[in-house]
């Protein structure tokens, strides 16, 4: 082999090695997948969560058309969430909204936009409806609160206020400010 053939063989070897290295680098770039900085990493359609108390009785029930997890927000987004807070006597407070967010533990649920809360009539109590927006629900504590305008409506009265704190367990509704009411007679 002469010097020219040796140089040509070395150049050909370098080209093969360089091409292999280049293709290896290209394959690595194509196979790496990452979660987008703003995208979701999990999706559930038709979410249905039932939480029991220490005695095995249903404490609350949350359903949603969908639940999407966004890791950069550390929150789950809910579409059309429905929350039923079950009382000891079997009656339930029914809470709905078009959308919401919750923590990974589910101990706080923010219902965003218009919120409708209802309780059916019982032996001594009229049915009750509360309309508000942007409500924070703490289902384990059976509490909810908002700084937004709220209307409490029953067959006998309507009360409008700004800000509301509800304790569904003790059946107390605290109105924070600008309270106005209309009461209807029974007769």
What would you note in describing this structure?
This protein has 187 residues and is an alpha+beta fold. Helices cover 16% and strands 54% of the residues. It has one helix at 3-31, and strands spanning 42-52, 58-70, 75-79, 82-86, 92-102, 109-119, 128-138, 143-153, 157-167, 172-183. Strands 1, 2, 3, 4, 5, 6, 7, 8, 9 and 10 form a ten-stranded antiparallel β-sheet that branches. The longest helix has 29 residues, at 3-31.
| Average predicted local confidence, pLDDT | 84
Distance between the termini: 119 Å
Structural class: alpha+beta
Q: What portion of residues belong to β-strands?
A: over 45%
Q: Globular, elongated, flat, extended or rod-shaped: what is the shape? A: rod-shaped
Query: Which spans of ≥5 residues are poorly predicted at pLDDT below 50?
Result: none
Oligomeric state of the chains in view: single chain
List the total number of helices: 1
Largest sheet: 10 strands, antiparallel
- How many individual β-strands? 10
What is the ordering of alpha helices and beta strands?
Answer: HEEEEEEEEEE
- Level of helix content? 10-25%
Over all CA atoms, what is the radius of gyration?
Answer: 30 Å
What are the key terms here?
187 residues, single chain, ten-stranded antiparallel sheet, alpha+beta
